[in-house]
Amino acid sequence: MSDQLKVFVTREIPAAGLDKVTSGSDAEVWREPLPPSREVLLQKVQGCHGLLTLLTEKVDAELFDAAGPQLKVVSNFAVGYNNIDIEEATRRGIKVGNTPNVLTDATADMAMALMLAAGRRIVEGQDYIRDKKWKTWEPLGHIGADLWERTVGIVGMGRIGSAFARRCHGGWNMRVLYHNTSPNEQVEKELGAQLVDMDTLLAESDFVSVHANMNPDTVGMFNAEAFKKMKSTAVFVNTSRGPLVDQKALYDALKNGEIFAAGLDVTDPEPIPLDDPLLTLSNCVIAPHIASGTLSSRNAMAEIAADNLLQGIAGQPLRCWVNQGS
């Protein structure tokens, strides 16, 4: 291993990628269940030529300084890269990679699962049984939302939003509204989807699903004002990023009956604090950020992350290169 370049992997990833990394570099892998502390991270990156990181690691000028001038690449095991100072990495000539295009179906499926679980009160029903409250079939018990031929509003009509739209339209003959920075002609032609302003989407949708990128324009976009514009029967789903939602406003909307239910795969912060009031609500289903949690998706992510890392330390173009040409 002495002739191989040094890398640090901030968490154990699937063997489909990790085996590549350990055989192709002088790799140290952080195998603890929790991420390394900031102090430990700054120590571990010293002298590294490459880093394989997760969204939990803040990759900034301080970290680059700690690593040293030989650092060539940061490979993020994620589609997103909000944890990385891309401008600073580019200024220093450090390549940044991510793992796009392999989470589309898994994330769209997760959005569907949350929509069904929240809308049909599945988790609430399970808790009802486990709390030994189920005595008989109840004609007025656990009545949820209808899906057939209802209207779904999709905020962010990229790959994942489009995959989710196809599921809604093909599975339940839903009318599809969407709000996006630009028209998506393919889903309009294929599904009859309509590009509308945000107020129209919120007012007319029975289900609202968020698939937008996180940026200064989208952070906090689902606030008290937005929830007040939604139907009282609406179900809200977020599989994008937690900071897009004002969680206090969401709690109030759910508690006060301004919307019917919510399903979240992402929160702010993560993990959600155990004393967060959202956890007290029966009409809020929260999953621990598992949209990409399928065997094929996680293996594909690991392979791309490994390829990005190894190509980067070898001075080659990355398979998925965030700051290419910057």
TrEMBL record:
<keyword id="KW-0560">Oxidoreductase</keyword>
<comment type="similarity">
    <text>Belongs to the D-isomer specific 2-hydroxyacid dehydrogenase family. GhrB subfamily.</text>
</comment>
<protein>
    <recommendedName>
        <fullName>Glyoxylate/hydroxypyruvate reductase B</fullName>
        <ecNumber>1.1.1.79</ecNumber>
        <ecNumber>1.1.1.81</ecNumber>
    </recommendedName>
</protein>
<dbReference type="GO" id="GO:0008465">
    <property type="term" value="F:hydroxypyruvate reductase (NADH) activity"/>
</dbReference>
<dbReference type="InterPro" id="IPR050223">
    <property type="entry name" value="D-isomer_2-hydroxyacid_DH"/>
</dbReference>
<dbReference type="GO" id="GO:0005829">
    <property type="term" value="C:cytosol"/>
</dbReference>
<keyword id="KW-0670">Pyruvate</keyword>
<dbReference type="Pfam" id="PF00389">
    <property type="entry name" value="2-Hacid_dh"/>
</dbReference>
<dbReference type="Pfam" id="PF02826">
    <property type="entry name" value="2-Hacid_dh_C"/>
</dbReference>
<dbReference type="InterPro" id="IPR029753">
    <property type="entry name" value="D-isomer_DH_CS"/>
</dbReference>
<dbReference type="InterPro" id="IPR029752">
    <property type="entry name" value="D-isomer_DH_CS1"/>
</dbReference>
<dbReference type="InterPro" id="IPR036291">
    <property type="entry name" value="NAD(P)-bd_dom_sf"/>
</dbReference>
<feature type="domain" description="D-isomer specific 2-hydroxyacid dehydrogenase catalytic">
    <location>
        <begin position="8"/>
        <end position="323"/>
    </location>
</feature>
<dbReference type="GO" id="GO:0120509">
    <property type="term" value="F:hydroxypyruvate reductase (NADPH) activity"/>
</dbReference>
<feature type="domain" description="D-isomer specific 2-hydroxyacid dehydrogenase NAD-binding">
    <location>
        <begin position="112"/>
        <end position="291"/>
    </location>
</feature>
<dbReference type="InterPro" id="IPR006140">
    <property type="entry name" value="D-isomer_DH_NAD-bd"/>
</dbReference>
<dbReference type="GO" id="GO:0030267">
    <property type="term" value="F:glyoxylate reductase (NADPH) activity"/>
</dbReference>
<dbReference type="InterPro" id="IPR006139">
    <property type="entry name" value="D-isomer_2_OHA_DH_cat_dom"/>
</dbReference>
<dbReference type="GO" id="GO:0051287">
    <property type="term" value="F:NAD binding"/>
</dbReference>
